[in-house]
Amino acid sequence: MSLISELFGKSPFGPLAQHAKKVHECVSLVRPLLDACVAEDYQEIHRLQDQVSKLEYEADQVKQAIREQLPRRYFLPVSRDDLERFLHCQDSIADGAEDFAVILLIRNTKIHPALVDEFTAFAGHVVGISQTLTAAAEELEALAESSFGGAEAEAVLDRIGGLGEAEWQADRMQRKLSQHIYRLESELDVLSILFYEKMLLALGAIANAADKTGDMLRTMIVKG
Amino acid sequence: MVWIVLLFTAAAGLYMAWTIGANDVANSMGPVVGSRSVTIAQAIVVAGLCEFAGAVVAGSDVTNTIRKGIVEPSALAATPEVLCLGMICALLAAAVWLHAATWWGMPVSTSHSIVGAVAGFGVVAAGAGSVYWGKLGQIVLSWFISPVVGLVLGFAIFRIIIRTVLGRAEPMAAAVRVTPVLAFVAALIVTLATIYKGLKNLMAQGRMEMTGGRALAIAALVGAVAALVSRLLVRRSLRRCEGLSLAEQLLKVEGIFVPLAVISACSVAFAHGANDVANAIGPLAAVADIVATGSVKMSVHVPLWVLVLGGVGIVLGLGTFGYRVMRTIGSAITEITPSRAVAANIAAATTVLACTRLSLPVSTSHTIVGAVLGVGFARGIGAVNRAITRNIFGSWLLTVPAAAGVAIALFLLGRLLGADLLLAQVIHAAPAAAAP
């Protein structure tokens, strides 16, 4: 036939941007989940957890498809290992969101009124970090178009440049919230404290994963 | 009697040209169809016109190489019928090998086949000394060098496109500005490669002096026309880009590259016609020479009707089988976008035309694969199969001996059956039969 027919493999960057979108949708349910927990609307929590689970599964499917379409014989514009690591990290963001949803689901935990504001702020900050990252990752197709250089690459690198500091801020907020919880320990039952800690860990994990994913994205763009 | 020999050879040449057209249309039009710049039907029509033009206008240089640049005709001057038989066998052998390889699903180069076949019969018919081994060495070297040059050019041209358009903060406006410049350059290169010392055949009477200055002027004129046409075609796109973000612009900018992609694909089709028509009609030109004059002469020009026959054959192949080939591989080549196609096409056309100027028969497929790989190295393609380089560096290793073997077999068979004696009668009767 023709040499040209075997020359091209499927570009992974469209599916990667799609994966980022799915993860974005997952994480956007974290705030509603927390709000429902504060409002003690446990049916809503159930509904939202279902949604998160479904979205996380769909993200997994996209991830599988990407992996299947990248046999070794294809040469990519980015390092294949970096791409793998990026995908893995981005996937763990969605995992973190799902973990959070499950924690809220398995026990009807009441949030102490004094902690509500801090919890909400922390969750909002974490979600903000994640959304910054996924918004940048959704531009992977545009990045591929400009060959990972030029004005577009600079714009994306700019946007994810602040992720490191934001994640550090998230760590601080998590520590402060933890300290506040233990200051109130006489008013709280042990299981509630346990579940608060689980929630904090899950939210912290989202922020961590988003930061790591940002690092991987930067490496992909810069190294090539 | 003369006519029967000529007709038979012409039919074989036409058949060979038909296979060339059918198999190779994807080289020029593949990227541009895959990137959805044109429909398959449009591609076929446009390719047909350009291939024919390339064959007739610039096809004589490489034709002469096949005709008299591989096997020294004077070595067989005493027995022109042997040269005649040999050329016919070479043509048939190349066609047979091509058909077999296609049937086995292997991509194979027509240039490799015919060169191997001609060299093969030359060694057997007139001994190893009759083959221009130096020229043959040059040809084989060019089979390595042309994909590498294509790669380097593809890389460089695409980097220029990134620097001037895709890397900008306003890519769509930049594309509208830069497209006419690229069109000018592409048309300039193609025209220069064609007319500077290349229009020998059409200027057989030596009516027009083609000086360097005149060539440049004509090329600049053609370039200007191409630039104007492309500017008109892309101007409307400028309106569409109001208020789009950078990312959105990048996802839409490819549309502006479409006209240039088509123009550059045309130049590849032209270059292919110029270089590959020789594979079909080189032997035919040799036979026509001998039969018309009754002897082996170092004549100057390839007869126009031979070039036209080759061009027609290629167009027929394009239009009939080529359509099906394009449809089959259509889904496999959708990952290339117009801007990448532009870089690869300009690179390939330049390289193939340069080789045509040097009278070297090269594989257009390998050159364009090299150019695409070059674009891939510039990080321009999502996933490119670099295992294909194996094919580039090794396919002639199989084809040249195989085609030579078949040519030798056919030649010996022909001699056994007394075909050369038959031809001798025909040739000696020819000058009397051929009325001026």
Topology of helices and strands:
The complex is a heterodimer of chains A (224) and B (436).
Chain A: H1 13-27, H2 30-38, H3 42-68, E1 74-75, H4 80-106, H5 113-137, H6 140-145, H7 150-161, H8 163-183, H9 190-223
Chain B: H1 2-34, H2 40-58, H3 60-69, H4 80-103, H5 110-126, H6 133-166, H7 171-195, H8 212-235, H9 237-240, H10 246-252, H11 254-293, H12 304-329, H13 338-357, H14 364-377, E1 384-385, H15 389-416, H16 419-433
Brief overview, please?
The complex is a heterodimer of chains A (224) and B (436). By secondary structure, chain A is mainly alpha-helical.
Overall geometric form of chain B: elongated
Q: Sheet bearing the most strands of chain A, described? A: none
CATH architecture of chain A: Up-down Bundle
Rg of chain B is 23 Å
Report what the structure shows:
The complex is a heterodimer of chains A (224) and B (436). Chain A has a single domain (10-223), classed as Up-down Bundle (Methane Monooxygenase Hydroxylase, Chain G, domain 1). Helices cover 79% and strands 1% of the residues of chain A. Chain A has nine helices and one strand, in the order H-H-H-E-H-H-H-H-H-H. In chain A, helix 1 packs antiparallel against helix 3 (42-68) and helix 4 packs antiparallel against helix 9 (190-223). The radius of gyration of chain A is 20 Å and the shape is elongated. The mean pLDDT of chain A is 94. Chain B is an all-alpha fold and 436 residues long. Chain B has helices at residues 2-34, 40-58, 60-69, 80-103, 110-126, 133-166, 171-195, 212-235, 237-240, 246-252, 254-293, 304-329, 338-357, 364-377, 389-416, 419-433; one strand at 384-385. The radius of gyration of chain B is 23 Å and the shape is elongated. Chain A binds chain B through residues 1-13, 69-70, 73-78, 139, 141-142, 144-152, 155, 224, and chain B through 23-24, 26-27, 30-31, 34, 102, 105, 107, 158, 162-163, 166-169, 171, 246-248, 250-251, 253-254, 325, 328-329, 332-337, 365-366, 368-369, 372, 376, 378-388, 391. Strand 1 (74-75) of chain A pairs antiparallel with strand 1 of chain B.
